[in-house]
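Onboarding guide, step 5: your first structure request.
Type a short instruction followed by the sequence, for example:

Predict the 3D structure of this protein.
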Amino acid sequence: MNVSADSNGKTVWGITELETWNAGHGNEQAWEPSLQDYTGREVEDCLQAHLDAGIEHVIWHNGRSTTCFQTDNPLLSPYGSVGDFGRADPLTMRFLKMMQARCILEAALDYSREKSIVLAGRVTMNRHYGEAYGGVFTSDFYRNNPDFHEVGYEGPDQPVGRMCYAFAEVRRERIEFMMETVRKDVRVLHLDFVRQPPMALYHPRLVEGFRSRTGLDPRELKLLDGESYWEWMRFRSQPITLFMRELKSELEAFAAQSNEEVRVQVRVTDGGPDENLLAGVDLMAWIEEGLFDDLFTSPLDWIAGHYRHDLPAYAGLARKHRFNLYAGVGTLPVPGYAVNPLRLVRMALNALEAGVDGLALYQTDYSLTHPDLAWCLPLLGDAEKLRETLLDKDLAVKYPLRWQDANFGIDNHGSSYPYQTSFNSPRL
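The system replies with structure tokens like these:
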């Protein structure tokens, strides 16, 4: 599997979502009708735009709760098969047309083979929308299994839009999701654990299991309680680690039968391994057990008051344990804020200087056609060109740093993140 650098320097991956390809750049005006029109070439146009920007590695969105590909698997719900599209916006309807016309994953794989694009298939690992958007993004598996729904600290009446991995059925559904894409010829899986932390919460199966083992009620623990708190965090992350083991076994069996290996990428927040554990990801266990091949980070600010982005810590782990590390840079602004390409350039340079193997840009479906961003994307893998860009006085005048865009480059789900909480709160 070719994961070598792009032609413009270090490897740059574009994380793209076809649903919002060429969608009007999120300005405050209504969506422009010309940008909503279905053409039938969205897959090819999106992938070609990456190539035109020198991006030869693309992380292709295959779904959250519903799949973004056609399937007859009874455990899975393809987008368009569930929900009320009478409540859908024009952008959602355009994507429905894409899904109905053909399998967009198969089309993406075909074009990638033709153009020598390395395509990874991304699935968000615990992101269920409930009845939002008319329920069109919510699978029947989620809707029909309320007992498997994760439970927030406040109890079952607190909607959290996640499922509990302590249930074998939940882990199996996620594995079937992955393996369906593998059977369609995906050879790089991208498991996105940034949607949505924390991945594990307070389901009774977890709470009672911990209480039986320790005699402690985890709902009463806080970070300041020290080792007892971290013991709870390790305990509730175990089912997700079990899922990773089960997936590895499934992929090994596939490789033995097909003589083709499947590479596994995982995407996590970038606040350090302790923060990952708070999110339900026992990254150190995953590293020790060799449960992934490539690590991707995302600068998501999801804990109030904790805005640390610790790339050197991950770079040290990558060197010690010999896995590839790609630093996430957001190209989609936090809602209500603005873009600034020089801020993007600075974040990319900082990441490269921290010793990463490359970058991952979220979401390129937005930035590739944005007039203030597209010009700088071909530069992002080349540290020397980034330094030269930051010294350009004309660009500094054109793109002054303002409070409205000072946070550009972080994950756009940050700052206004609806589940932000405090380190000293048991709600994590």
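Each response can be followed by summary notes, for example: Confidence is low (pLDDT under 50) at residues 25-34.
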